[in-house]
Design a protein that fits this description.
Shape: globular
Structural class: mainly alpha
Helix content: over 70%
CATH class of the largest domain: Mainly Alpha
Distance between the termini: 30 Å
CATH topology of the largest domain: Growth Hormone, Chain: A
Number of strands: 0
CATH superfamily of the largest domain: MFS general substrate transporter like domains
Strand content: under 5%
Number of domains: 2
Number of helices: 14
Order of helices and strands: HHHHHHHHHHHHHH
């Protein structure tokens, strides 16, 4: 029963990320041609969705903590399907913006964080294994849906393609969420009475007075900005540094497999390294990647080494952000605490691509961006070490 549930939830993650996150990049091109809206205007709406999702993160986490995971994730998939269908018929930019602000609510209900919280509430000691499986499957979202969306657009146009993507969300994700997510797990008498009275028996805000929590948030913000800002600019960075387009694409392609491999090793190698040790390794790999990049000669295939380090760090970061907070701050209120971490992280992630682009325009090349990324990676490493030093065992 648990692994059937994990498999279903992992499959919905692949579809949710594929249809709500990765498909956007392919659909904006034909939208720009048909409607005349600029890429800047189109991507601004997507950034607003990330900001919107940040403000829904905490209430969604609280609902899951109170046992409403099935309703939250099913409702999120239904909302996503509805908004994709509305997007297919949009003719006005304001309507498009409002659709994507609403999409933020759907994202906050169906992406990794709510999925992690649902797994944690049902799997107990098996949570680490379940989260690993979910992220392994979800890591193939771009591999599956970028070519699939391209084929759909070529065959049916972007509007009908969106209707097909909407059907994935309502016909597969909503259905699987509704039938596979178990009812709220049994709680202690005290916890049950607290929920039946409509009052949370615990207080997730307790972590706000802990310096260790804020150092963890700082770490997540800095790494989140790198993981969102760099992929948008990575091909231009490689080309500017003298690499051929073939080498740049090959290096970019290496990132995905490196992420999946790192998640597999960290998820199933719990006997070899603790979560805290994995966190230290994650931050160290990020520093090494950006420290090595300036010294890789133009044309050298050592650029694949940078991609492997960067991808491995990104992959491990997903596991660390999902599993370390309960170890550091306690297992109560997992969903709400994850939402409290996700809120500032998503806002920073939404700003990162534009901030890196503005820094490139101001400086005239990507050197300042790479120095900034190295600085953020070093600061993330320091903040994470301070977090570990200050955190106490729950």
């Amino acid at each position: 029963m648990p692994w059937r549930f994990v498999s279903a939830l992992s499959f919905t993650q692949l579809i949710s990320y594929g249809t709500l996150f990765y498909a956007f990049a392919l659909i904006i091109e034909p939208m720009e041609q048909e409607l005349g809206w600029s890429k800047t205007a189109l991507t601004a709406a997507f950034s607003l969705a990330l900001v919107s999702s940040a403000f829904f993160a905490v209430p969604v986490g609280r609902l899951i903590d109170r046992g409403y995971g099935r309703a939250v994730m099913t409702g999120g998939s239904v909302l996503a399907a509805l908004l994709l269908a509305l997007w297919a018929g949009t003719e006005h930019y304001l309507a498009f913006v409002l659709i994507w602000i609403g999409m933020g609510a759907a994202m906050s209900s169906v992406f990794y964080e709510p999925g992690f919280a649902v797994l944690a509430s049902h799997l107990g000691l098996l949570t680490r294994r379940g989260i690993t499986i979910m992220t392994l499957v979800g890591g193939f979202a771009s591999t599956v849906f970028i070519p699939l969306t391209h084929l759909l657009i070529e065959a049916y146009g972007w509007r009908d393609s969106l209707l097909v993507l909407a059907a994935f969300n309502i016909g597969i994700c909503a259905l699987l969420h509704a039938v596979s997510i178990p009812a709220a797990p049994a709680r202690t008498k005290h916890g049950t009475e607290g929920r039946s009275a409509g009052v949370s028996a615990s207080n997730p805000r307790r972590v706000l007075v802990k310096p260790a929590f804020w150092f963890f948030v700082i770490t997540s913000i800095l790494q989140g900005m790198i993981s969102t800002g760099i992929p948008v600019h990575l091909i231009p960075i490689f080309l500017e540094r003298g690499f051929s387009i073939d080498a740049a694409v090959a290096a970019y392609t290496m990132i995905g497999p490196a992420q999946v491999a790192a998640r597999f090793l960290t998820g199933f190698g719990e006997r070899a390294m603790s979560l805290r040790g994995i966190g230290v390794a994650t931050m160290a790999l990020s520093v090494l990647a950006f420290l090595a990049l300036p010294f890789i000669p133009a044309g050298s295939w050592l650029i694949l080494g940078f991609a492997a380090l960067y991808g491995a760090s990104n992959g491990m970061l997903t596991i660390v952000r999902a599993l370390l907070p309960p170890e550091l701050f306690g297992r109560e209120d997992y969903g709400a605490i994850q939402g409290m971490i996700a809120m500032p992280v998503r806002i920073a992630m939404a700003a990162a691509p534009f901030a890196f682009g503005a820094l490139w325009a101001w400086w005239g090349n990507y050197d300042a961006v790479l120095v900034l990324c190295l600085g953020m990676a070093v600061c993330a490493f320091v903040a994470f070490m301070l977090n570990l030093a200050l955190a106490k065992e729950p």
